[in-house]
Amino acid sequence: MSSQIIPVEEFDLVVFGGTGDLAQRKIIPALYHRHLDGQIVGTSRIIAVSRKPLSPKEYLTKAKEALEEFIPKEDRDPKAVKTFLERLSYVAVDVTDDAGWKELKTKLDDFPDRVRAFYLAVAPSLFGQICEYIGKTGLITDKTRVVIEKPIGKDLASAKALNDAVGKVFREDQIYRIDHYLGKETVQNLMALRFANALFEPIWNAAHIDHVQITVAESIGVGSRGPYYDTSGAMRDMVQNHILQLLCLVAMEPPMSMNADAVRDEKLKVLRSLDPITGEKAEKQTVRGQYTSGAGPEGAVPGYLEELGDTTSKTATFVAVKATVGNWRWAGVPFYLRTGKRMPQRSSEIVVSFRPIPHSIFETGAGGVAENRLVIRLQPDEGVKLWLMIKDPGPGGMRLRHVPLDMSFADAFEVRSPDAYERLILDVIRGNATLFMRRDEVEAAWEWVDPILQAWEETGDTPKKYTAGTWGPAASVALIERDGRTWHDDD
Ligand code: BG6
Measured from the CB, is residue 441 less than 6 Å from ligand 1? Predict the structure, then answer.
């Protein structure tokens, strides 16, 4: 089975931070894949911009390196690579002074009427300045968009300041805030599952759902990202954005349509309905952890403090939270959220656990009746499993078994799962903002997160230690077991 490829209209995409890590690792490879599939057509151009005084040839060598490193060999079609590289060019622009802006304008003036997107793949501290220059150089046309990415602030106040700086130059409908989790196939599938099937919606509420779990586990540590990560920690790095976005997609009311504002209005209502976790509640409803040396995927690994070279850091590399959504649909249904670095495996999933049956007709010898669970697996091995009770096959009497009705996407569809950035960048060109965060969403998420961070700050406690290669501190298990539930284990 193959998916339908619809070419996008011709565009100019200007990538600030064009030689940086995000451009090399994600943006250039994503664009190559879309080019390979014939979705980028005509004279569409990708203009990389950075401070470095590179010649066009030097830049192309860098872009080629990105393709060699991040595109599997079997997808590197020599003809496609050549025609893709022909779309690329480079302009050296110092974003803090006038140099280079004129050259960029001359270039963009070749096609004043096409879609023009500015991707700010740079540190957020530069967003304001770059936008100001884009504005004052006269680069904004009717079809101009700007793309920014997290971290959008480190708290509500700084997020507002950043949004104000970008909003001074661009209208809200021109601003595309990426949360790359929203571009993941299975995350979009969550919407298909909920709203393209009549089966789930009638039971998608507190009357039938006991609780929800959202786990985003990574086996990697912070590695060389320590200096950034230490100012952030798991709450800001993963919960404020990716995990809360997942929670929104699980908990939101059916939007009127897939229209960007219809979807985002519903997500916003969820964020605003999250019950605040302040002061003492933070102690009861959250757990923080920090990994110590232990086992990584390829052998022994150092602890966070050793990697960081700072023994005093209180930054959490693991967080578990018991969140509740205060509205009619979800009253009394806990959402257990957890994320961490250096977990035993990379594994992200949403588990919707249904209520137990009201009465068992089976004899004790048949075994217990476990609850139904819908497991939406985001990565790796994307797919959906519905855990059901069945009769153990065979003539040996009535014995019950909990087994999954298993749909692995890799087995069901013979198409490669595109990287989130492929979908998201082309959505920017199409002008479809459904999978991007609106300003009010980002700020509502901070409004919920800020008091938790503040409560942690006030207690001054250090995060609980957990050994690399384990599922976080024991307190995380206690958090859910206190309520008579357990973290889902697929094995
Ligand atoms: C990023 C975080 O937003 O998401 C990283 O800053 C994290 O710390 C990454 O590793 C996880 O993304 P993915 O797509 O690999 O699950």
Answer: no
